[in-house]
Amino acid sequence: DQQVKQNSPSLSVQEGRISILNCDYTNSMFDYFLWYKKYPAEGPTFLISISSIKDKNEDGRFTVFLNKSAKHLSLHIVPSQPGDSAVYFCAASAWTSGTYKYIFGTGTRLKVLA
Amino acid sequence: DGGITQSPKYLFRKEGQNVTLSCEQNLNHDAMYWYRQDPGQGLRLIYYSQIVNDFQKGDIAEGYSVSREKKESFPLTVTSAQKNPTAFYLCASIEGGGANVLTFGAGSRLTVL
């Protein structure tokens, strides 16, 4: 049972345009959401997060939107740059068994074309 | 600089052998996690630990074991009972006290020959 889903395995975008990566979740107990960027054979690096009490968080070129009623979040990258090409994971967390448990989606491979 | 150190970076193992992956953090974080990454399956939680001498199974704990004898260290043993051990293993940690950013190490690539 996949609680966090990224239904698009890959996405190609022209440099300078907007990249939109989507993520859906099923567990209403999730209260904190994160996006990570990952290169092959490296650990994920944190990009941006959002608490369930907010619907938008912005950091430079990156904006995360949260729609709690739809259990959906998205990451917008504007403008997209070739260096943004990587795999992006969304993650959701909830307090369980005395700690925060983090569940990850399967990732979306973004390719920004120069 | 504070961070998470995983070793070895690459490891080869023969079938039937146990192998231990090291994870050390100097961030003074309370909770530590082990994830496994396979192509097309994202990151799956193996084990996690909130405090020293305490740990819980994640979603795919079968064939793995862990210990948490020190706050800084959370080694993962991949036993011969793990049927598909070839994967990229990631250790992570988080500061206690609330929902926060999970910090990852650089990962260890295990290949079973």
What would you call the structural class of chain B? Answer: mainly beta
Ranges of chain A where pLDDT stays below 50 over 5 or more residues in a row are: none
What is the average per-residue confidence, as pLDDT of chain A, rounded to a whole number?
94
DSSP strand count of chain A: 11
Uncertain residue segments of chain B: none
Describe the structure.
The complex is a heterodimer of chains A (114) and B (113). With 114 residues, chain A is mostly beta strands. In chain A, 0% of the residues lie in helices and 59% in strands. In chain A, the strands form two sheets. In chain A, strands 2, 4, 5, 9, 10 and 11 form a six-stranded mixed β-sheet that branches. A five-stranded antiparallel β-sheet of chain A has the order 1-3-8-7-6, with no helix packed on it. The model of chain A has no long low-confidence stretch (mean pLDDT 94). By secondary structure, chain B is mainly beta. Chain B is built from no helices and eleven strands. Chain B has strands at residues 4-7, 10-13, 19-25, 31-38, 42-49, 56-57, 64-66, 76-78, 87-94, 103-104, 108-112. In chain B, strand 4 (31-38) and strand 5 (42-49) form a beta hairpin. The radius of gyration of chain B is 13 Å and the shape is globular. In chain B, 38% of the residues are buried.
Overview in brief:
The complex is a heterodimer of chains A (114) and B (113). Chain A is mostly beta strands.
